[in-house]
User: Which sequence fits this backbone?
């Protein structure tokens, strides 16, 4: 009995796809869903612990400082148009614009991560001081890992797009990386309100 082979002509298919047509996009979305659940868990822990204290922060613990965290939030939000511009340039396969955008995005992500380190001092408490200290350090620390991932990826894509080793798939990955930055920034807004403004209103 002769085996039959199905032959398909795929020469007309695009070599680069963006958004939900690409498997990397689905992997990025799944990664963001997992991280979102973890951040929601840290927020829920914060609110649960708050119910166990008469004062928040506990007595003799100063409220967190606002200057550095607010500056960092402003920088993050101001960077969103840059990420969007770079994403659109990647989708149009515009190499010069993507290179410029990624360079600027790399600088911004590094500045934001540096300010995040300073934010730990803005908490005005240590991680092992009490339950309050532990939970606010966990909230900042977990989101810091998200920022660190983006620093690593953005610098990596910047190097790739400036080298001869870039491949067609990298255009879609750059676009996904810019989308991930949106997640990193917008997911921080409610956490900023919770950690830095919460003690002033709760």
Assistant:
């Amino acid at each position: 009995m002769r085996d039959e082979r199905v032959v398909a002509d795929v020469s007309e298919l695009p070599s680069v796809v963006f958004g939900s047509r690409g498997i990397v996009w689905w992997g990025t979305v799944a990664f963001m869903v997992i991280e979102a659940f973890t951040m929601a868990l840290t927020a829920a822990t914060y609110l649960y612990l708050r119910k166990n204290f008469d004062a928040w922060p506990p007595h003799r613990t100063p409220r967190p400082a606002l200057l550095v965290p607010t500056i960092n939030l402003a920088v993050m939000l101001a960077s969103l148009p840059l990420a969007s511009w770079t994403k659109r340039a990647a989708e149009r396969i515009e190499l010069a614009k993507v290179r410029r955008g990624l360079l600027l995005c790399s600088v911004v992500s590094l500045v934001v991560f540096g300010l995040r380190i300073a934010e730990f001092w803005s908490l005005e408490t240590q991680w092992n001081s009490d339950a309050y200290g532990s939970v606010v350090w966990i909230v900042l620390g977990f989101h810091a890992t998200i920022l660190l991932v983006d620093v690593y990826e953005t610098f990596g894509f910047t190097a790739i797009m400036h080298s001869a080793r870039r491949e067609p798939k990298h255009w879609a990955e750059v676009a996904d990386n810019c989308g991930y930055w949106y997640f990193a920034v917008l997911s921080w807004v409610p956490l900023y309100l919770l950690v830095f403004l919460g003690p002033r209103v709760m």
Summary: Residues 169-201 form the longest helix (33 residues). The chain has a mean pLDDT of 91.
